[in-house]
Design a protein that fits this description.
alpha+beta, five-stranded antiparallel sheet, 4 helices
Length: about 260
C-alpha cells in the first residue's frame, strides 16, 4: 500500500503568459503555447524546474556562509547540486564559489567517482536524481482559457521603422487565467520501504540522504518549508519574462479525503 498526500495547485496569471509549444500545422499558429488534449497547459517539467530552482535558492540563502564565501562543512549535506551532466562556464563559477556542488546527484556511485561516495541533496531527494526517484509527483496544470495571438517585430536601427520580414506572430494567454493540477507526495511506500522524511536504505554504494541525518528536518518542516512555501514563492513562470510576461500567483491547498 502506498500512502500519499495530495495538494491542489492553482496558478493565476498576473500578466500575459506563455509556455511555448511545438508548431502545429493544423492550427497555423507560428509560435503556439503548449497544448495537451486541446487544453492550454503549464507542463509538469516547467513547474518542476521552477520548484527545484526555488528549493536550491532557499538552501543557498539559508546555509551558504556569505562572510567566509563558502559552505560550512557541517551543513555540506544540504548543499544543492546542479542536475546536469556537464556545466557551463558560468555554472562552474558557482561551483567554484561553493554555492553548488560540482557533481550532479546520482545513485549508485560508480568507479568514476573514485574514493568519494556522493550524497543526495534535498532538491534531488524531493524531485529525483539520476538513478533514484523522488517523493514528489509534479503535475501538468490545465486551463480552459483560449490563447490569443500577438505580433512581435524589430525596428531597423538605421531607418527607425519596422524591419522587413521582421513580423513574428506568437500565441499568448491573457492575465487572470487559471491553471489547476494536483501535486502528490508519497508519504509511505511499504513495499519499497520508503518513508518520506527519513533517509532511504540504499544497498549500493552511496553516501545517501545524509542531510536527513543532521536531525534538523522533520516531515512537517520538509513539506512546509521545502515544498509548499517554495511553490507559493514562485512569482514568474514561462517565457518572455523580460517583455512583461510570466507573473503568476500560486496557491496550494491540501486535499482531504472524506472519512468512511
Amino acid at each position: 500500500m502506498i500512502e500519499e498526500e495530495k495538494y491542489e495547485i492553482v496558478v493565476k496569471t498576473k500578466e500575459p503568459f506563455r509556455v511555448g509549444g511545438t508548431k502545429d500545422p493544423l492550427s497555423g499558429a507560428e509560435n503556439p503555447v503548449t497544448v495537451v488534449g486541446g487544453r492550454v497547459v503549464i507542463p509538469g517539467p516547467s513547474l518542476k524546474g521552477a520548484l527545484r530552482a526555488e528549493v536550491e535558492r532557499y538552501l543557498v540563502e539559508m546555509y551558504y556562509d556569505k562572510a567566509n564565501e563558502g559552505w560550512p562543512a557541517e551543513k555540506r549535506p544540504l548543499q544543492p547540486c546542479i542536475p546536469a551532466p556537464s556545466l557551463s562556464p558560468d555554472e562552474k563559477e558557482l561551483v567554484k564559489k561553493q554555492r553548488y556542488r560540482g557533481d550532479a546527484c546520482h545513485y549508485p556511485c560508480k568507479q568514476k567517482c573514485g574514493n568519494e561516495d556522493h550524497m543526495i541533496c534535498p532538491a534531488c531527494y524531493l524531485l529525483g536524481a539520476q538513478g533514484l526517484n523522488g517523493f514528489l509527483r509534479v503535475p501538468f496544470l490545465y486551463s480552459e482559457v483560449s490563447a490569443g495571438e500577438l505580433y512581435s517585430t524589430r525596428i531597423d536601427r538605421a531607418k527607425g521603422v519596422v524591419a522587413e520580414s521582421a513580423n513574428r506572430r506568437f500565441q499568448v494567454v491573457p492575465d487572470s487565467s487559471v491553471f489547476k493540477g494536483v501535486l502528490t507526495i508519497v508519504k509511505n511506500d511499504f513495499v519499497r520501504g520508503l518513508e518520506f522524511g527519513k533517509p532511504r536504505v540504499l544497498r549500493e554504494r552511496t553516501a545517501g540522504d545524509r542531510w536527513l541525518e543532521l536531525g534538523e528536518w522533520n516531515t512537517k518542516q520538509i513539506i512546509d518549508k521545502l515544498v509548499l512555501e517554495r511553490l507559493k514563492n514562485i512569482k514568474l513562470l514561462g517565457g518572455f519574462k523580460s517583455k512583461g510576461f510570466g507573473g503568476v500567483e500560486i496557491t496550494v491547498t491540501r486535499i482531504t479525503v472524506p472519512q468512511g
